[in-house]
């Protein structure tokens, strides 16, 4: 009977040790996955910030094209067709930006 208890205790100790090793391995894996998730979130945040900056830059560029260039050309005769093409190009760009922005907001 005593030998059965000793064998049972040895088996219990071996099982506990194996479980502790497996748990430690899972904890290491969990820490690595958490670290990877944090890094991915940080990259996504930086990408979102860059996208907002690019959006703002695109709008400012179109704004400059429409107002600054148009204001300079209005004083020069014979530029009506050029002004029309510039405005059409700006309108087209605004439509693309607007469509992209709508698509981005739908994915949030």
Summed up:
The chain is mainly α and 108 residues long.
Describe this structure in words.
- By secondary structure, the protein is an all-alpha fold.
- The chain has one domain (2-106).
- It contains two helices and no strands.
- It has helices spanning 2-73, 80-106.
- The longest helix has 72 residues, at 2-73.
- The chain is rod-shaped and about 110 Å long.
- The chain starts with a helix and ends with a helix.
Major β-sheet annotation: none
Proportion of strand residues: under 5%
| First-residue to last-residue Cα separation | 67 Å
Low-confidence stretches: none
Number of H/I helices? 2
Please provide the ordered H/E string of secondary-structure elements.
Answer: HH
Overall SS class: mainly alpha
Helical residue percent band: over 70%
Task: Give the integer mean of the pLDDT values.
Answer: 86
State the total count of DSSP E strands. 0
Computed over alpha carbons, the radius of gyration is 33 Å
